[in-house]
Amino acid sequence: MAEILPLEVIDKTINQPVWIILQSEREFTGTLVGFDDFVNVIIQDATEWTTSQTTGISEKVMEHHGRLLLSGNNINMLVPGGRRSGN
Amino acid sequence: MSERSSEHNPQRAHSQQQNNQRKKFESPKREAILDLAKYKDTKVRVKLMGGRLVVGVIKGYDQLMNLVLDEAIEHLKNANDEISKDKTRELGFTVIRGTILVSISPVEGSEVIYVQTSE
Amino acid sequence: MLPLYLLTNAKGQHVRIELKSGEIIEGELTNVDNWMNVTLADVSEYSNGDNSAQTEVLKSSEIYLKGVYIKYIKLQDDIISTVKQQINNNQHNNKGGNYNNRKYNNRNYNNGQGSGGRRSNHNNSYGNNGNRDMNRRHNNNNNRRSYNYNNEHGKPSNDGTGGYVQHHAVFNNDNNNKVEF
């Protein structure tokens, strides 16, 4: 019965690279600094991307230096370890 | 008390459905209606608000339907904004938010069929 | 008859659900909760791009759907009478169901107000658990007002109907008639 809890997975990602996919075509990569129960998220030195949902190709929008607070409202998925090399 | 607990026993409630005469009037449930434990380590299709389709192996979940999927694949869309069957991208080990989950169904035992529509 | 109660008692029936995205999903309703999240068995999913001569259908054994994403649920045409019959059956099966109670409920249905019947019905089932006739009659006399009260505050607690009864019981009978959850 050793369950993997989603919020525990996010917790273990703190201080590690993370890839955050929003409801829209926008995505963020960076180092996870912290999060709360709503999965509002703080990431360090984030890069913001738009990724076409038809081609899967990402374009860099901008780089955010320092910390960035991302509302949990629009977050669809979080991928620990950051962006996959194929993407 | 025994009468009450039978209302919340799905097995019993279902057998009551079979027997029309003994059906019991039921209230909506407050507890979880889907036991994700039976899908653990199996492949599921998850649809998200905003139209994404993700297929992956359930490794974990919580009460709020946040999911941990392994080997997750997101299906991309074709030109008509419909979900494509073959165009995918790899996400890997992924946490999906329960708040934006729309539907979840097992991949195993599912099949695509084509129905002729009369025009 | 509240929508969620109707739906809850339509379990086992074939339903057709349209999601906000326009997708249509059919199957046997197996479970419903307070948020109208549902599970279906023997599911057929139809995508909305049905302009060609062929429609693609995805068949699967089970599906869970979020209630907030449902546009509508098409139930069987005879669902209301079926569920009414269920309520009546329930009362006839209750040894404690007295004549007055039944008459009250029937009148209510004829007026098209299922609410009183719904509640009384539960009074009955709790009444069986060591309750006295006194309480039941008392409840009936106060039915209308009590319903309005609950309606104004609009929050069924716990499992919905049971919640109404609990409020009612506490207001009228103090500890005499406590319902456990």
Structural commentary:
Chain C: Residues 89-181 are annotated as: Disordered. Chain C: Binds specifically to the 3'-terminal U-tract of U6 snRNA. Chain C: InterPro entries: Lsm4, LSm4/Sm_D1/D3, LSM_dom_sf, Sm, Sm_dom_euk/arc. Chain C: Residues 2-79 form the Sm domain. The complex is a heterotrimer of chains A (87), B (119) and C (181). Chain A is mainly β and 87 residues long. Chain A is built from 1 helix and 6 strands, in the order H-E-E-E-E-E-E. Chain B has 119 residues and is mainly beta. Chain B has 2 domains: 1-31, no CATH class; 36-106, SH3 type barrels (Roll). Chain B is built from 2 helices and 6 strands; from the N terminus they run ααββββββ. Chain B is globular, with a radius of gyration of 19 Å. In chain C, strand 2 (24-32) and strand 3 (38-46) form a beta hairpin. Chain C has 2 domains: 3-74, SH3 type barrels, CATH 2.30.30.100; 79-175, no CATH class. Chain C contains 7 helices and 5 strands, in the order αβββββαααααα. The chains are: A mainly beta (87), B mainly beta (119), C alpha+beta (181). Chains B and C meet through helix 2, strand 5 and strand 6 of B and helix 1, strand 2, strand 3, strand 4 and helix 2 of C. Strand 5 of chain B pairs antiparallel with strand 4 of chain C.
Tags for this entry?
heterotrimer; A: about 90 residues; mainly beta; SH3 type barrels; C: about 180 residues; 5-stranded antiparallel sheet; about 45% helix; about 25% strand; disordered C terminus
Structural class of chain C: alpha+beta
Portion in helices of chain B: 10-25%
Helix/strand structural class of chain B: mainly beta
> What's the quaternary structure here?
heterotrimer
Please give the most extensive interface between any two protein chains, plus how many residues each contributes: B-C, 45 and 57 residues
SSE arrangement of chain B, N to C: HHEEEEEE
* CATH structural class of the largest domain in chain B: Mainly Beta
In whole angstroms, the N-to-C terminal distance of chain B is 56 Å
Number of strands of chain B: 6
Q: Provide mean pLDDT of chain B, rounded.
A: 83
Mean pLDDT over the full residue set of chain C: 67
Task: Work out the number of β strands of chain C.
Answer: 5
Adjacency order of strands in the biggest sheet of chain B: 4-3-2-1-5
Radius of gyration of chain B: 19 Å
Strand content of chain B: 35-45%
Low-pLDDT segments of chain B: 1-7, 12-22
